[in-house]
From TrEMBL:
GO-annotated molecular function: oxidoreductase activity
Source organism: Nocardia flavorosea
Protein name, per record: SDR family oxidoreductase
UniProt keyword Transcription present: no
Keyword Signal attached: no
């Protein structure tokens, strides 16, 4: 029995240079997809491509800032030109508040606009150009977005949480609009992942000691007692973008060790 779930598909992954995006790009390639690895840090996207190619997979790196419409248009066009069609678009990029632990009133309006621009603006652009491409091809296609448990339950982090709540609602509405065209849209909602680049992006000291402290506190919050890893998310992503999930759309899929079930 073949275990290759994405044979013949072309997948685009944003934020593919690190964390969830890098792990997912690799897993998609292992499952037979040709992968366009998009990241604002081209050198990091290229490193993911190198790893995929070392494993015998097919991938290409593109420099993409998800807040720039022209970059997103080029990202989708690159996938279509190189591989003939686009089947999967994983809008995974998200950034934390510039100062981790910041409360609502700690944010300047500029901070707010930056989070909105990347976290929901980037997903809006990614979904829009995915839908345009799927309709142009006249074929079904799959969108996956990265939300967060922060958009499902409130623990603080108001501005980040609001952007992720918006990602969730956008995902569900795109699923409904896309359904008549065979387009599916789902979101994964990870809980705390101390081992990706995300915490450092949030200005948290990224020493090994700090990471382990964070891992311990994250684990304590999860009923299953472990932090979430990028690999956990990648496994959920593979399932949701594959034909095994052909009748699943509009779902906000927690990857959270039971966190939101509590
Ligand atoms: N780490 C966590 O605790 C956690 C928890 C819940 C949800 N999430 C979400 O998971 C997703 C992936 O996060 P991660 O933990 O893998 O983070 P990460 O920082 O390891 O990876 C994010 C990648 O996105 C890229 N990126 C940032 N801004 C970009 C832009 N404007 N355009 C293109 N690329 C850009 C970065 O260069 C990086 O390679 C995000 O949406 C994040 O909000 C993370």
């Amino acid at each position: 029995m073949s275990h290759v779930l994405l044979e013949g598909k072309t997948a685009v992954v944003t934020g593919a240079g690190s964390g969830v995006g890098a792990a997912s790009a690799q897993r998609f390639a292992e499952e037979g997809a040709a992968v366009v690895c998009a990241d604002i840090r081209l050198d990091h996207a290229k490193e993911t491509v190198r790893r995929i190619e070392a494993g015998g997979g097919v991938a290409v790196a593109v420099e993409t800032d998800v807040t720039q419409e022209r970059d997103i248009a080029e990202m989708i066009a690159t996938a279509a030109d190189r591989f003939g069609h686009v089947d999967i678009v994983f809008n995974n990029v998200g950034i934390p508040t510039p100062r981790l632990g910041a409360t609502l009133e700690d944010h300047t309006f500029q901070d707010f606009q930056r989070l909105v621009s990347v976290n929901i603006g980037g997903v809006f652009l990614g979904c829009t150009y995915a839908v345009l491409q799927f309709k142009r091809q006249g074929s079904a296609g799959v969108i996956l977005n990265t939300g967060s448990v922060a958009g499902l339950v409130a623990w603080g982090g108001a501005v980040y949480a609001a952007t992720k709540g918006a990602v969730h609602q956008l995902t569900k509405a795109v699923a409904i609009e896309g359904a008549p065209f065979g387009i599916r849209a789902n979101a994964i909602c990870p809980a705390g992942m101390p081992y990706t680049g995300f915490m450092a992006a949030g200005g948290l000291e990224s020493s090994a000691e700090m990471t382990e402290k964070l891992a311990a506190s994250t684990a304590a919050n999860h009923p299953l007692g472990r932090p979430i890893t990028a690999q956990d998310c990648a496994e959920a992503a593979v399932f949701l973008v594959s034909d095994n999930a052909a009748n699943i759309t509009g779902v906000l899929f927690p990857v959270d060790g039971g966190y939101v079930a509590r």
